[in-house]
Each structure stands twice: as structure tokens, then as C-alpha cells.
Amino acid sequence: MGGGGVSDQLVTPVLRALDLLDWLAAGGNTDNLSEASRETGISRATLGRLLDTFHTAGVLAPSPAGTRFGGRMLRLAAAVIGDGDLTGAAAVTLPSVAADLGLSTYLVILDGEDAVYLQQHLPDAPLVSNIGVGSRVPAVQVAPGRILLGMAEEVAWSRSGLESGVGAAAIGIRHRGEFVGAISVAGPQAGVDAVADRIEPVLLVAAQDISARLG
């Protein structure tokens, strides 16, 4: 390193990339690269290369508005958030749900019209679902999404709704009277049916535990 100040040691392309992510998080639209270049102050060529890199790395993913945050960014965000919030509270509670019911267990939030899967806890059983951390699907198509959209009562159920042969159930997590997320369990339909009478009480206790941890 030379003898210059801190500014001499900064990596300008990285700062430019972070500026782009900040702009996207604030609602920036990349559908029109020329307009996006004008708004960000990043040249059109550089902007295109940054977007291609982020898409390849899974930081961004295609959307009708040009781009959205992808699974890799969601995993990073979930890892950064501390124990006092939703993801930290869920990470304490959900593994026991997966072990108790023998079903894959998820923490899901609503992002616009999509259900986004932030956590996945697996039981000691073969995985039957393609849903994983960072998955984003139309909320109306999945049980936790319907809960968060207010389309279901206490528990939402799904039989081969999104994936053939896969059953699911979900319950909402409330904080100060509002839904802040949902717990979802999924597995082979036969496995879900085998513990169907236990799913609602187990999920209810888990949701209450997470809510209590949120304060």
C-alpha cells in the first residue's frame, strides 16, 4: 500500500456497484438502461456490465421492471440481520418445528405480490420440494403467501398447489397486531396428511414464540 489516505485505497468499481444496489433498493428501474444510467451517474456500458455480473452471481434476478434482488442477496440480508428481529427469532424456533413434524419448515415474508422464502430448516428426511432460501413465487400460489395476503383464516393449506405431490400448510407471525411473516411446512402429501392433526397446534405455538421474541 502507498502512503496516501484511506481514499487512495478504495476500490472505485466496488463503490459504484454498491451505489447501484442502493439505487435499486430505493425503487430504481433498469428496464431502460439509458434512463438508469442518467439517474445513477454510471455509464451505460458500465451499468450493463454490473447488471450482467450481478445477475450471473445471483445477486439480482429478472423481473417485469427489469431486475429485482435475487436469492443470493436475500441470503446475505438474512444472515446480517441480528437476533432481535424476525429472522433471528425464527432461526431459534423453526428447527424444532422441522424435527417435530418431520417436514421442511420455512420463514416466508411478503414482498409486493410475491412470497419470499428467507429460511429453510430440513428434517431428517428426503427433500421433495424445489423451494429453497431465496425462492420467490407469486403469493397467491402458496399457503404462506395466502396467509400474508389475508386470503386465509388461521391456517392455510395446500395440496399439490405449486408442486405436484407436495402438501403444505402455513400460519402467520404477528408483531404488534400486523403480519410480519409466516411459517410454512411442506413435504410429501402423505407425510403432511400423517401429521395433519398436529400441524396447526405446532405452528401456532411456534408463531407465538417468534412473536414473543420480537417483543
From TrEMBL:
<keyword id="KW-0238">DNA-binding</keyword>
<protein>
    <recommendedName>
        <fullName>IclR-ED domain-containing protein</fullName>
    </recommendedName>
</protein>
<keyword id="KW-0804">Transcription</keyword>
<dbReference type="InterPro" id="IPR036388">
    <property type="entry name" value="WH-like_DNA-bd_sf"/>
</dbReference>
<dbReference type="GO" id="GO:0045892">
    <property type="term" value="P:negative regulation of DNA-templated transcription"/>
</dbReference>
<dbReference type="GO" id="GO:0003700">
    <property type="term" value="F:DNA-binding transcription factor activity"/>
</dbReference>
<keyword id="KW-0805">Transcription regulation</keyword>
<feature type="domain" description="IclR-ED">
    <location>
        <begin position="72"/>
        <end position="215"/>
    </location>
</feature>
<dbReference type="InterPro" id="IPR005471">
    <property type="entry name" value="Tscrpt_reg_IclR_N"/>
</dbReference>
<dbReference type="InterPro" id="IPR050707">
    <property type="entry name" value="HTH_MetabolicPath_Reg"/>
</dbReference>
<dbReference type="InterPro" id="IPR029016">
    <property type="entry name" value="GAF-like_dom_sf"/>
</dbReference>
<dbReference type="InterPro" id="IPR036390">
    <property type="entry name" value="WH_DNA-bd_sf"/>
</dbReference>
<dbReference type="GO" id="GO:0003677">
    <property type="term" value="F:DNA binding"/>
</dbReference>
<dbReference type="InterPro" id="IPR014757">
    <property type="entry name" value="Tscrpt_reg_IclR_C"/>
</dbReference>
<dbReference type="Pfam" id="PF09339">
    <property type="entry name" value="HTH_IclR"/>
</dbReference>
